[in-house]
Amino acid sequence: MSAAPLVALRGVGKRFASGVRALEGLDLEVGAREFLGLLGPSGCGKSTALRLLAGLAEPTEGLVEWAEGARDAAPGEVGFVFQEPTLMPWASALANAMLPMRLAGVGRAEAKARAADALAAVGLAGFERAVPRELSGGMRMRVSIARALVTRPRILLMDEPFAALDEITRWKLNDDLLALWGAQRFTVVFVTHSVFESVYLAQRVVAMAARPGRAAGEVRLDEPAPREPGFRTSARYAAQCRAVSEMLAAATGEAIA
Amino acid sequence: MRPGRRAARIVAPLLLGVLALAGWEAAVAAWAIPPYVLPGPALVARTMVAEWPGLRDAMWVTLGITAMALAAAVFLGVALAVAFAQSPWIEDALFPYAVVLQVTPVVAIAPLVIIWTRNDVVMALLVCAWIVAFFPILSNTTIGLRSADRNLVDLFRLHRASRLQTLLRLGLPSALPYFFAGLRVSGGLALIGAVVAEFVAGTGGSASGLAYVILESGYRLQIPKMFAALALVSAIGIAIFLLLGLVAHLALRRWHETAGAGEDAGA
Fold first, then answer.
1. Is A158 left (phi over 0), alpha (psi -120 to 50) or beta?
2. Which of A51, A88, A137 has its CB closest to that of B267?
3. Backbone angles phi, psi at B136, to 5 degrees
4. Which of A54, A84, A95, A22 is nearest to A187 (CA)?
5. pLDDT in tens, B10-30
């Protein structure tokens, strides 16, 4: 990475109260406007790393370093999308998307307008009044993404957001996420355990190894956003997947299945 | 739920009730049971009509005490649950005493309460009914406030929400289904508390409720009137149960599973 990173984990370790060492000596730089895939098996500390970036947990060793003024200006600088949609079931799609604005003290009218824009941007115009149980799984995840983007964050942290969705919905959301990223140019850290998803989405894939969690290899794969039609079935995509699989196998010390 | 199943839920208990009443009436007539032992339902109904003014006044007294006790239970139960949610210290300090209040039979406390309320009978009844009614609301709301989705709690932290924001926008809505479950239990308990307390405290005079009518009818061997008062107590209990169920349904129907609203949208 040439420019100074937006945020970096420097020698970060995380030991839980139970004594479990989730991370050790993790170095990770995330460039401004980069789409970074964080790839690894279950239990390798991907989610913990994401929580450290979000400030939801503190490292027990090392530093989380932000580019000057990037984090402390406003809480809305970081958007977070969980593995589950994590919506308030009693609130409409609009009210859910408004939440970060309302918590920041933004007036009702402005919050409403911006939340409506955010919902429209994820393809949910017309569903403002629906409550989560009236929406499909994919639509709920779209609301969750709209809520994360409503404050126009500098960085979007995503913790296996599409893992629970069916493949057809996941592919559609992959494309829509890339389109949003292309249009709004925020930074993304996307945690996944799918080689195929990371190759399809990211500009750079960092593999993590487990026990204790650490960065163990990376592949850079610059593809245009949005992806060219047919990219998913192209030989180029297959070759990239192979490269990332081999890197992951080397990183985790296991043979490719 | 299928329409047939729904109709069965209303028709089946009604049918059973009518059959039981008819059997009861037939048995009383067939064996010529005297009314001071077991009056037939027709006689109870006639007595209800004949004694209606007095029964109605007594019913209003019992209903009033039940409603006030339930209101106090809601207010103090929720307030205390919110205090518990703010600080584990408050909860650790107070919860054992809440349990003590819950497990001590109200019959045993009632004489003390009467002394402490300086013979203000209505206040004594109110306090007794409240003691019985408030615990389910307290314990359910406390659990409900803790049941908020962990990830949503994290999201509120991420956006640096204040305690008040987290309570109002996350804690209380999350607690609502639990609160309503407790409220339904407490509604019945408030009625039981109001009746039992009146048995112990006695009332007489202008402010006597249905329990006093039952006691008095018993002493005078006016068993049909006693049955009429009993029927009214049951009717109040059923009305409270249905009303609170309706309130819960209206409040939760759009989002909560227990309210059983329409189908999920599916994937």
1. beta
2. A137
3. -60, -35
4. A54
5. 899 899 999 999 999 999 999
Percentage of the residues of chain B whose pLDDT score is greater than 90 = 64
Q: Is B171 left (phi over 0), alpha (psi -120 to 50) or beta?
A: alpha
> Domain extents for chain B?
42-252
Q: Domain B42-252, CATH 1.10.630.10 — does that match?
A: no
Q: Are A202 and A36 in contact (CB under 8 A)?
A: yes
Residue B161 identity (one-letter amino acid): A
List the one residue out of B84, B97, B98, B69 whose CA is nearest residue B186. Answer: B69
Residues in chain A: 257
Which residues of chain A make contact with B180, given a CB cutoff of 8 A? Answer: none
How large is the ipTM?
0.89
> Pairing relation of β-strands A21-31 and A78-81?
unpaired
The pTM for the full model equals 0.85
Tell how far CA B192 is from the center of its chain. 7
ω into A85 cis (within 30 of 0)? no
How many whole angstroms separate alpha carbon B209 and alpha carbon B230?
12
Q: Position A41: which residue type?
A: P
Which residue in B160, B176, B255 is closest to A131 by CB distance? Answer: B255
R_g over Cα of chain A: 18
Taking alpha carbons only, the member of A190, A174, A168 closest to residue A227 is A174
CB distance B265–A84 less than 8 Å? no
C-alpha–C-alpha distance, residues A228 and B89, integer Å? 59
**Partners of residue B149 in chain A, C-beta under 8 Å:** 86
Sheet architecture: strand order including A204-209: A78-81, A155-159, A187-192, A35-39, A204-209, A214-220
Q: What average pLDDT score do residues A165-188 get?
A: 90
What gap in Å lies between CA A55 and CA B58, rounded to an integer?
A: 62
